[in-house]
# Entry
Amino acid sequence: MQKFILSILILLIFNYSFSQVQSPIPSPRAKIAQKVGLVNIDLDYSRPSKKGRIIFGNLVPFNQIWRTGANQATTISFSDDVKINNQLIQKGEYFIYSVPRESKLDLVIYEKNESWGALSSFDESLIKARVTSDFYNLPFAIETFTISFGDISNNGASLNISWDNKIAIYVIDVLTKEKVLESIKNTMDNNPSAADYRKAAIYYYEENIDLDKAIEWIDIAFKDSDDLPYWQLRYKALIYEKAGKINKAKKYAKKGYDLALKNNLPDGINTLKIIYERLNN
# Structure
């Protein structure tokens, strides 16, 4: 009997220990991993919602440090050095704090430490960068606090902070050009492959650098004597077009378009038709 009672007690204790109310988190955590140029950027932050409240100047007071989200401070990491609004930030992981003002948002990149949540004051020795954006008024309200990356290119992106009817926009420069040009130079001096020539040509095309050299490299990567697929012909057409060699560009666009039609490849048909029609207008 005692063993039976003991078994019942253990069962009750076990059920009590594991019977907990499951409910949604008011400000759920979000993680974003974004590749910009050659740099990996990781962002981890909590996302409170407006819920009918006045945000800036009320829930988030002006001229006070804001954790830029909720709960634990927002973190951001960079796999290599970047600039934000032209201020250099070395690779690493940081906290993001901000200070809202009536018409601006100061963004503070702060050395990561053991602090949790909001700060009452900054330790100036831990500030790695402090940059400012105007607040831009939106024609609608953002219900849930959002940090996002936009306008992504080879060289950078925008870091956008938006909530309620306001958005602040910061410019991230991932310092790609210097790295890629150095990489191309080193590679071209050391027995480059066809893929290296292709990548170098496309980068020069995209960045509008020495288009004659881009043509030289794309012709090595994609030889006219080979049976080129439509997508290689598309690149040749684009590079020749930007270099002002329109007749050759037309030739490659037409050949690629015909190949895509023959093989019923919708992506090739659509992209090469646009190029071919543009070249013939």
About this structure: The domain at 176-279 is CATH 1.25.40.10 (Serine Threonine Protein Phosphatase 5, Tetratricopeptide repeat).
